[in-house]
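Handoff note, outgoing to incoming analyst
You'll be picking up this chain. Sequence as last confirmed:
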Amino acid sequence: MSMTTAEIAPQITPEELKKFAEQSNAWPFEEAKKIVARLKAKPKDEVIFETGYGPSGLPHIGTFGEVARTTMVLHAFRALTEDKVATRLIAFSDDMDGLRKVPDNVPNKDALALDLGKPLTQVRDPFGTHPSFGEHNNARLRAFLDHFGFTYEFASSTEYYKSGRFDATLLKMLARLDKVMAIMLPSLREERAATYSPFLPIDPQTGIVLQVPITAHDAKAGTITYEHPETKEPVTVPVTGGACKLQWKPDWAMRWVALGVDYEMAGKDLIDSVKLSGQICKALDGKPPEGFNYELFLDEKGQKISKSKGNGLTIEEWLRYASPESLSLFMYREPKAAKRLYFDVIPRQVDDYQQFLEGYPRQQDWKQKLGNPVWHIHSGKPPAADMPVTFTMLLTLVSSSNAENAETLWGFIGRYRPGVTPQTHPKLNDAVGYAIHYFRDFVLPEKKFREPSAVERKALSDLRDALANLNPESTAEDIQNVVYEIGRREPFLDHAKKAKDGRPGVSLDWFNMLYQVLLGQEKGPRFGSFVAVYGVKNTVDMIDGALARSA
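Most recent structure output, in case you need it:
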């Protein structure tokens, strides 16, 4: 999978693509149109996209989601401008922030507690692999973004402050300190407002980021003066060269101005912060970037996912159970709607991605193609679909056979789809591994077989006999018809749904019963298709086992 800003697809000219992109209401194009309008008002040679990362905890899926979504907007912008405007995506790490609390999901917490208050790049690495905790988490983020093939420019707050890249804008903020204070103070509680300063000096002795009021400032000299919290002596330091850092809302605004950021999205919880930073940006003669506020991810209890708590899915966990493309689809969908980000959402994302991919070549209209998520996931160049077995089917096969190895699953697949092997279908081979992991970790612990009622036992016995008399070469459709016909009895009739012959249809209760009694799970794929892959004889044996279990 390529997550890069790939070249425009060859089957359509840039001019034609631009025309269809302008008509598309897919959200990445809607966002990109705002940047196009921005350029018309104030032309520039290069458009800067930015994503922010707070490395106080390990990178999580929300971090990836912001980069993935921003990349989608960036590529949509390229389509709208015929790729004639240079673009850059800056992944910015706020690694000069002070460590406020020890994260729950790291080792050596006691040692880390000794560095509270220090910039993250001065906090010891609890994992012992990098010079600092900030650098460890930065490396984790970069490794993952590299794995996905994102095109980005990594930026470290520590490096930018210390190298002087922010100096000019910091001096401008110092010169306009009164304006910045006038914007910030109304947003603060009275107690905090009394001691608030946008500039946070770094204590030369302890290295701690100090939250102290400014007693004086000199715009010409580029300095601030504060009273040292322990010695009570006045201390004067420059605001440049990394001797100070900014509180985060002024910092965000300063960064937009210093880097010329044109687009940055943020979580819904930062709506007020975006407004305040935007006002400060204007006070520094800058224009706030375009963007939108996306909804937050929730854990299985409906709580906001937190980096420090580690209560959401990690990047590594998702990739243990599913493909990177399925994660990208999850990020593409409804960015302004709150979504649960937990293990049970994975199977649907995997299968839906395949459906979108299979449907893409059949979509003749380019407006439809540009509305297909795979166009955005693959930066305009979706690969050919090549997944002959769904993920839901694989999970059911693992569950029915209690397969502990890939060879068992490939035995079923090879009989169902002759010629399909791990070598011919590497993506399917990956999916087999994902399904086994998912089954072991989530399905097996919850697996619970339901006892069939007397009526259900009779129906299962009839189904067993009907399947036993089937031609071994029967198709999935033949098998489904038999399953359907056996289920056409009370209490499984659906009188509101008529079959082609005018008789009552069969309710989902029949199929749900099959999965609950035979497989110990609530739902599954189309039962006829499952039997075709699993094998008629194996299914007959499975029914015999269920009947014996409940005798």
